[in-house]
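Long-time lurker, first post. I've been practising inverse folding by hand and with some scripts of my own, and I keep getting stuck on stretches where the structure tokens seem ambiguous. Below is the full token string for one chain I'm working on. Before anyone asks, I'm not after the true native sequence, just a reasonable design that respects the backbone. If someone could post their per-position residues I'd love to compare against what I wrote down in my notebook.
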């Protein structure tokens, strides 16, 4: 029984990766190309550019607005205590980049934590705002 469940989960993961196998911005598929977009990133920002680039983000050139090179999600208004991978997974749990780097269990844990916090009306852990996914000219 457990094997069948794993096989079903694996098949759905493979399908998700297959259906979303191409990043929206393939020119930023490697870390250094993403990091280069942060050359004009505000030095007073609450998140460091290395963590953001590692988690798949490029800098848009506006405030602290970043965009995932893979799924295109836009996030802004970062707080100092925000964990970048968690924010990415919470705001787009279907991002293949997060899935490949962190795994399905990590995404599930983030979703469960978010649901527990919101159901207890204590959600004030993260103030990151998601923006409508649209194209931005990335600085770099």
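-- Answer (accepted) --
I ran through it position by position. Result:
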């Amino acid at each position: 029984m457990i094997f069948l469940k794993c096989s079903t989960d694996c098949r759905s993961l493979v399908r998700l990766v297959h259906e979303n196998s191409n990043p929206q911005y393939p020119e930023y598929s490697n870390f250094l190309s993403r990091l280069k977009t942060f050359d004009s990133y505000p030095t007073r920002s609450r998140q460091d550019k290395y963590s953001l680039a590692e988690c798949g983000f490029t800098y848009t050139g506006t405030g602290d607005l970043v965009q995932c090179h893979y799924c295109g999600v836009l996030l802004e208004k970062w707080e100092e205590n925000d964990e970048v991978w968690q924010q990415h997974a919470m705001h787009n749990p279907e991002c293949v980049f997060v899935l490949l780097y962190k795994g399905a269990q990590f995404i599930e844990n983030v979703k469960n934590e978010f649901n527990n916090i919101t159901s207890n009306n204590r959600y004030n852990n993260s103030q990151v705002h998601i923006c409508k996914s649209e194209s931005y000219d990335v600085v770099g």
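A couple of notes from the structure itself: The first helix runs from residue 2 to 19. Residues 1-8 have pLDDT under 50 and may be disordered. Happy to go over any region you disagree with.
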